[in-house]
Structure formats: C-alpha cells, structure tokens
Amino acid sequence: xxxxxxxxxxxxxxxxxxxxxxxxxxxxxxxHEPAIQxxxxxxxxxxxLMLVGEMPxxxxxxxxxxxxxxxxxxxxxxxEQAGISRSDAYITNAVKHFKFHERGKRRIHDTPKKSEVDAxxxxxxxxxxxxxxxxxxxxxxxxxxALLGSSFxxxxxRGREIESDLAPYVTATIHPAAVLRAPDxxxxxxxxxxxxxxxxxxxxxxx
Length: 207
Ligand code: URA
Ligand code: SF4
Fold this sequence. Notes:
Shape: globular
Bound molecules: uracil, iron/sulfur cluster
Largest sheet: 4 strands, parallel
Strand content: 5-15%
Number of strands: 6
Number of helices: 8
C-alpha cells in the first residue's frame, strides 16, 4: 500500500473554494472510507485569526461542518466570552475526516494516528498559505503536533507565544472537548473559565 498522503489531491490554487471543493475527493489516507464526508475549514479568507482543532466528530461528519457538536458548543461559548465573533475566524482541523469505531448505534471518536495527521497536513498547509492569519491558535495536542512536530507539549505551550514561522503570533490552548471530559461540574467550570481566558488573551492580539 502506498504511503498515506493528501498531496496528490491538493490543487495548486489561490481559491479557498477550489481547495475545499477538491478536498471532497481526497483519498489520501484510509479515513475517507468509513466517514460520511470531508469536513473542511470554514471562515473568511481574510480572517486574522485561525483556530485549528483535531478532527471532525460524529456531528460534524453528519453535518459536513466544523465544530457544530458538543465541543463546538464549548468553543462558541468561550469565543463569545472572549469577545471574538466566530464568523470572523477561520476554523479548521488537523484531520479532515472523522475517525471512529462503532459501539452499537454510536460512533465513538478515535484519536487519529500520526500517519493520518501527517497524511492530511497538506490541506492544513494550503489553508494556512491562503488565509495567512495574523494569529494562529492551536486547540489541543493533535493540532500542536500536526503543526509543530511531535515534540509539541500542550502543558509547556499553553497560553504562551510559540516561536514559529506559521504566523506572526502563534499560541496554544486546550481542545474544547477537554472541558467536557472534566470529572465534575466544578472541574468543568474551571476548565471553561481557563479556556475563555486563554481566548480573551488571544483577542487582544488582533483587535
Ligand atoms: N473536535 C474537533 O477537533 N473539531 C471539530 O470540528 C469538532 C470536534
Ligand atoms: Fe484526505 Fe485528510 Fe481525509 Fe485522509 S483524513 S482522506 S488525508 S482529507
């Protein structure tokens, strides 16, 4: 089997629309097979802010849209608290197809492998090349490793400026799904506050 790689599917174009269209046909890794559809990034081409998550979830795979499920609700809430309008941001994921296993009728999220993250990277690289955000926010470890390599550690980089050529200002915070994994209400509230406060600090960078 050839090595997984999206490169042959990524057109040389300056059009975000053409890029997104071409992604529908990506067969760059095995993840396209069981998923319903590709979930490409969304937002204005001239967005000053780009947010990068991990991979679409069950709801996103059904809707064909990024961050529309429970993690998306957490993201929306934190963005609102930070005074950032979601429609001003370009929001995407490190991996564009949902990876899961079935448990009865439910489709349970599987963390993508490094080979899948690497295979999908050409799409993210193309989005970065076209949008050229002033501020790039990494949401969680998968996006961090995709963009900065396997030495990325969220605990070391969270809320800090990260030295990188990817954008003038690069930083990282938790993935919004981490809020949902908190063991109790108090923990959830604490995660929510910290997440919103990370994004509020980001808002100061581009407003
Ligand atoms: N989690 C992600 O990383 N991205 C989505 O679009 C939804 C959930
Ligand atoms: Fe292509 Fe990425 Fe989907 Fe794999 S996950 S098939 S590389 S779009």
